[in-house]
Design a protein that fits this description.
The chain has 317 residues and is α+β, with helices and mostly antiparallel strands. It has two domains: 123 residues, Helix Hairpins; 162 residues, Immunoglobulin-like (Sandwich). It contains seven helices and 14 strands. The strands form four sheets. Strands 1, 2, 3, 7 and 10 form a five-stranded mixed sheet that branches. Strands 4, 5, 6, 8 and 9 form a five-stranded antiparallel sheet that branches. A two-stranded antiparallel sheet has the order 11-14. It is elongated and about 105 Å long.
């Protein structure tokens, strides 16, 4: 069972929240943004529909209480809203006012203080509803989640020697020409373990060093890069050998973060590798080639690996 899917979705569900579920309502705006698109569109349509019907009913109610619906709107009689005779006409007047289309045939007269008050209330309420819902839709459309789909990770990780050192490696790439500013990569080893005191820690998280001390974790991601974790005495894979890899159970979670150059928003892409997706004694095929005046990236070879001579022993051995 994966903790993080290959597409980056965390395989965790929260249950039995009890009274803590009220915390979602205290941050209703974020809750609304986190909802799926179909629920956002439903709430968007229902909110506007209910608000329009309620406000149109209030305009119709004022005309009904004043008796404007049964009076001829001539020069001798001044109604609250001219040319409002029934609910459809009251609804059209509300829409004209809310959308600032222009009154035209229907307009408020100066002898209707309750209509002026309702007009002010309608303007304030409409501004709040528009700001809330349109702001929510704008933030949801501009979320950088789709940008993360154009960040690629290799399907498998490999273990082989580099610079006479045994290393765990995987590949990352950016499909767009726009850059990821301040791109940084982190790796977590997810593995259950038992402490010397007998405490069992399910899904214990351990950090994998991918160049924190040397700055190699800060990426200039304009072409595919191979991320390298050196297996040494401080690595959790210090005792890992080709034989023990077959019986191990672990998951490597990779987190790539950066700022989208075009929008300035922070983007995060995730993936994971289980023990079955770690290939011992393999290396990635080259994808860069020099053309006439530029470098070409062949993404058809992005996931491809080939076998290389690698000792089957662990670093400890």
């Amino acid at each position: 069972q994966r903790f993080v899917d290959k597409n980056g979705r965390c395989n965790v569900q929260h249950g039995n929240l009890g009274g803590e579920s009220s915390r979602y309502l205290s941050d209703f705006f974020t809750t609304l943004v986190d909802l799926k698109w179909r629920w956002n569109l439903l709430i968007f349509l229902l909110t506007y529909t209910v608000a329009w019907l309620v406000m149109a009913s209030m305009w119709w109610g004022i005309a009904y209480l004043r008796g404007d619906l049964h009076q001829a709107h001539g020069d001798s009689y001044s109604p609250c809203v001219a040319n409002v005779y029934n609910f459809p006409s009251a609804f059209l007047f509300f829409i004209e006012t809310e959308a600032t289309i222009g009154y035209g045939h229907r307009y408020i007269t100066e002898r209707c203080p309750e209509g002026i008050v309702l007009f002010l209330f309608q303007s304030l309420l409409g501004s709040v509803v528009d700001a809330f819902l349109i702001g929510c839709m704008f933030i949801k459309m501009s979320q950088p989640k789709k940008r993360a789909e154009t960040l690629m990770f290799s399907r498998a990780a490999v273990i082989s020697q580099r610079d006479a050192k045994l290393c765990l490696m995987f590949r990352v790439g950016n499909l767009r020409n726009s850059h990821m500013v301040s791109a940084q990569i982190r790796c977590k080893l997810i593995k259950s373990r038992q402490t010397p005191e007998g405490e069992f820690l399910p899904l214990d998280q351990c950090e994998l060093d991918v160049g924190f001390g040397t700055g190699a974790d800060q990426l200039f991601l304009v072409s595919p890069l191979t991320i390298c974790h050196e297996i040494n005495s401080e690595s959790p894979f210090f005792c890992l050998s080709q034989r023990s890899l077959r019986s191990e159970q672990f998951e490597i979670v990779v987190i790539l973060e950066g700022i989208v150059e075009t929008t300035g928003m922070t983007c995060q892409a995730r993936t994971s590798y289980t023990e079955d997706e770690v290939l011992w004694g393999h290396r990635f095929l080259p994808v860069m080639s020099l053309e006439d005046g530029f470098f070409r990236v062949d993404y058809s070879q992005f996931h491809a690996t080939f076998e290389v001579p690698t000792p089957p022993y662990s670093v400890k051995e």
